[in-house]
Structure formats: structure tokens, C-alpha cells
# Entry
Amino acid sequence: MMYHTETISAGTKFFWRVILEDVTDVEFESFIATLIEFSKTPSVGGKSAVGHGEISVQLDNWIQIDSRVSLQGTEIDMKLGTKYQEHLKHNADKIKRFIAEMV
# Structure
């Protein structure tokens, strides 16, 4: 079996920008929840189980995600996720139906 891989040298810097404009509290908290989940195992590419693709993400003047640390959801000096969790709780059935219709 033949296959091809692409590699990125250790230390390569990636640059990206996310701009949240005119978002609700629930939308902001869902974005933060996503970052917190990503921070639990921050990696890009495959073979992360053997240590490939480990990354450190520095969000300028805000928060840092590093594969060597673990975020708890309180690093931005406020309780995060309460409104988002309530939204998920109250809309669980609608969200599940929407996802099922996408497939």
C-alpha cells in the first residue's frame, strides 16, 4: 500500500485570526468552550497519539493554549459557559434534530 504524507518542521509558526463581531453571550461562550475543549489536546494533523502535531497557541493579549497546560474555563477572569450550558440544556432536542437533518 502506498501513501503520501506532508510534514511541517518543528517550530513552524502558523498565523490565523478569528474575529467575533456582534455576538451574543451564548455565541461568545460557545466559542470559548470550543477553545477550552481544544486546549485539552491541542494538536494539528495525524498521529497525535504518538506525540506528532503538538502545538502551543498564543492568543495575543488574551489567553494561551499549550499542550503542556490545562485550561479550566476561568482564565479570562469570569465564569464561563453558564449561558452556553443553559442554552444547550433548553435546546437539546432542537439541536439534535438539526444535526440529524444535516446527515
